[in-house]
Amino acid sequence: MIVAVALLSALVLLALAALHLLWALGIWWPIPDEKALVRAIAGFKGIERMPSRQSSLAVALALAVSAAAAYLLGCGEGVPLPIAVAGGGCAAVFAARGVAGYTPAWARLTPEEPFRTNDRRYYSPLCLAIGCAFLLLLWSYLA
After folding, report:
1. How does the average pLDDT of the chain come out, rounded?
2. Apex CA 32: angle with CA 126 and CA 130, to 5°?
3. DSSP letter string over the chain?
4. pLDDT digits (tens, 9 = 90+) for 66-116
5. Given CB 3.0 to 4.6 Å as the disulfide criterion, which of 9, 71, 97, 137 pairs with 127?
6. For the purposes of burial, counting CB atoms within 10 Å of the CB of 98, is it exposed (0-12), middle (13-18) or buried (19 or more)?
7. Interaxial angle between packed helices 124-142 and 53-75, expressed in degrees from 0 to 180 and rounded to the nearest 10
8. Angle between helical axes of 124-142 and 81-100 (0-180°, round to 10)
9. C-alpha distances in angstroms, 114 versus 12, 66, 80?
10. Virtual CA dihedral for 19, 21, 26, 32, nearest 10 degrees?
11. Taking the domains of the chain in order of start, what are their residue ranges?
């Protein structure tokens, strides 16, 4: 089961990294209109342009590193402690982002639709699931 959690987590994180890489390259997908896309994926008040290429690239890299950490924690032999620490950081970041999506403060920061609805339905639950997956992987690593 741990291997399945690691592989699924890594695949989801790699897919998200690929999306952010596309956006860093200026490819607006799955919505070809920049303003509509950014309102669907970011939702900050009054936002009309995608985040910078550097920001998107940084997120893509962070997601790819997270995917590697998930894979190694669940499938690796003799995983070094720094990988486990990175996994703990991933668990904390994803869990915090997932919880934040349900707070009034986050709703005030990101009121644009359809992001507001997508965040409650999809983005925040996905972040919570990824955070829980990392906790499970860490528990298995420590056991």
Report:
1. 97
2. 10
3. -HHHHHHHHHHHHHHHHHHHHHHHTT---SSSSHHHHHHHHT--TT--SPPPHHHHHHHHHHHHHHHHHHHHHHH-SS--HHHHHHHHHHHHHHHHHHHHTTSHHHHHH---TTHHHHIIIIIHHHHHHHHHHHHHHHHHHH-
4. 999 999 999 988 899 999 999 999 999 999 999 999 999 999 999 999 999
5. 97
6. buried
7. 40
8. 150
9. 22, 27, 42
10. -10
11. 2-142
Amino acid of residue 10: A
Residues with Cβ within 8 Å of 66's Cβ and at least 6 positions away in sequence, in order, are: 13, 86, 90
Q: Which two tokens stand for residue 72?
A: 């190694």
